[in-house]
Amino acid sequence: MVVLEITKEELEGKKVNFIDVRTKLERQNGHIKGDIHIPITELESKKNELDKNKEYVLYCEKGNRSLYGSLYLVAKGYKVKSLKGGYNKYIN
């Protein structure tokens, strides 16, 4: 079984390549510094911009869309996890 979710605590001290899959409007409320913004609706068309040799952590507001995006990208051969609880849990 592949674990697709990761917590903020599990990421502490690691260099992380975050991908924000929220909308542009949601992103205006804040985002993780240094992340990449690829809305979930554009993930399929922009996946080739990602390096399959890097590991990524996707996040959205609560963790549902990022989990869906992670399932999609893992099926395409990418090393991806979803931030459990999303951005809301990450900042609190």
What does this entry look like structurally?
The structure is a single chain. Helices cover 33% and strands 20% of the residues. Strands 1-5-4-2-3 form a five-stranded parallel β-sheet. Strand 2, helix 2 and strand 3 form a beta-alpha-beta unit. The radius of gyration is 12 Å and the shape is globular. The chain is an alpha/beta fold and 92 residues long. It has one domain: 3-Layer(aba) Sandwich (Oxidized Rhodanese, domain 1), CATH 3.40.250.
- The CATH class name reads Alpha Beta
Please tell me how large the radius of gyration is. 12 Å
What coarse outline follows from CA principal-axis ratios? globular
Number of helices: 5
CATH architecture tag: 3-Layer(aba) Sandwich
User: Span between N and C termini?
Assistant: 29 Å
Low-confidence stretches: none
Query: What is the H/E order?
Result: EHEHEHEHEH
The gist of it:
This protein is α/β, with parallel strands linked by helices and 92 residues long. The chain is built from five helices and five strands, in the order βαβαβαβαβα.
